[in-house]
Write a structure and sequence with these properties.
The chain has about 400 residues and is α/β, with parallel strands linked by helices. Helices cover about 45% and strands about 15% of the residues. A six-stranded mixed beta sheet has the order 1-6-5-2-3-4, with helices on both faces.
């Protein structure tokens, strides 16, 4: 049996911080002495219906604990989602409806099981509405565990306070509620992104106030989105969801800037084959699709990408549009403008650059007025990614 020190070192190896120093090793030693599993907590607020690759970084760490025989406690914040986590916010997050929270929460467990082991001895799902719908006296006790000054030390709160932006009392309660989750489930360890460090450490203080042993904290680096800079987020449009179709997963991975690849390989725990950047990115895309859809889907997604973006073949599903014209011949820039919602000047520019194809064949850059039959019922492509099946209707 490995020592608590070596097990802690393994679990800490790709974490941003392990707090306090030696804390995880002590929790492992204590659990070993008591002959029990660690209870490892992760809280997720169902503010969106999808789990994306950024979430999987922490889910993979939870799976490592499971593989070592410990119990993961996944907390769906059905109650705290009514507040909305203010981390990284410059304003108050809009409240969600109960219906939206319920709909989002239903999808979380199913998606998490694509990484976590659902075995009941290693996994526990809780909703914090079980304990946060508390009597006023219990809320007063929780509120006494910290001070306003402590909460305003948090970077996002302090920045908003300094700028005069409003901070609601409800938002100030959010970290306390998240901390109380640790009390309710008697967490030994809590895991989260580096943007959650304040909340996770506050959980230790709340546990102390309730005479519980304080949890160890592991923070993990934040996965950048496909833009390579901003935190992955569905609202920013830079995310890849674990439920995305294989082709979309692969294609969006291929948009990742080269300089962000090292981070993705490391945080997603994917073997880096090295070599030329484009081939590394292909390998990354295949591995991501294979993880969530299987090897056949990965092969198919890459082949479909090549057909569309390398060989310039049309995708299997193409939007069909009908363009009305006054008569023969048809004015090609006008047809392109209507079919693709671009300006006529942009259509002329693409034509002049040889960037217009019909059924895969490039059009003559000088072709401004053409017979309707040149386009009618055919697949027209502009640039590398836009395809339409055009029906020409003569008035």
């Amino acid at each position: 049996m490995e020592s608590a020190g070596s097990t802690a070192a393994f679990l800490e190896r790709n974490a941003a911080e392990s707090l306090p120093a030696g804390g995880l090793e002590k929790r492992l030693e204590k659990a070993g002495e008591e002959g029990r599993q660690l209870r490892v907590k992760l809280g997720l607020d169902p503010t969106a219906p999808d789990i994306h690759l950024g979430h999987t970084v922490v889910l993979q760490k939870l799976r490592e604990f499971q593989d070592l025989g410990h119990r993961v406690v996944l907390i769906v914040g059905d109650y705290t989602a009514r507040v909305g986590d203010p981390s990284g916010r410059s304003d108050t997050r809009p409240a969600l409806s109960g219906e939206a929270i319920e709909a989002n929460a239903r999808s979380y467990e199913e998606q998490a099981f694509r990484i976590l082991d659902p075995d009941g001895s290693l996994y526990e799902l809780r909703f914090n509405g079980e304990w946060l719908d508390m009597p006023m006296a219990d809320l007063f006790r929780l509120a006494r565990t910290t001070t306003v000054a402590q909460l305003l030390d948090r970077e996002d709160f302090s920045a908003r306070y300094a700028s005069g932006a409003p901070i609601s009392i409800l938002e100030l309660l959010y970290p306390l509620m998240q901390g109380y989750d640790s009390v309710a489930v008697e967490a030994d360890v809590e895991i989260g992104g580096t943007d959650q460090t304040f909340n996770l450490l506050l959980g230790r203080e709340v546990q102390r106030a309730y005479d519980q042993p304080e949890q160890a904290v592991l923070t993990l680096p934040i996965l950048p989105g496909i833009d390579g800079t901003e935190k992955m987020s569905k609202t920013k449009g830079n995310a890849i969801a674990v439920n995305d179709p294989p082709g979309e997963m692969f294609g969006r991975t291929m948009r990742l800037p080269d300089e962000a690849m090292d981070t993705w390989f490391e945080l997603l725990a994917i073997d880096d084959p090295g070599g030329e950047p484009r081939e590394r990115k292909r390998s990354l895309g295949r591995a991501i699709v294979e993880r969530f859809h299987g090897p056949e889907a990965a092969t198919g997604a890459e082949a479909a990408f090549d057909r569309q973006f390398v060989d310039h073949e049309a995708p299997e599903e193409i939007e069909e549009v009908t363009v009305e014209v006054d008569g023969e011949p048809v004015h090609l820039p006008a047809v392109l403008a209507d079919a693709f919602s671009v300006s006529r000047s942009e259509a002329r520019r693409l034509l002049g650059q040889g960037g217009v194809r019909v059924d895969g064949d490039p059009l003559d850059p000088e072709a401004i007025d053409v017979p309707a039959a040149t386009l009618d019922g055919r697949v027209v492509q502009i640039g590398r990614r836009q395809f339409r099946r055009v029906q020409v209707k003569v008035r």
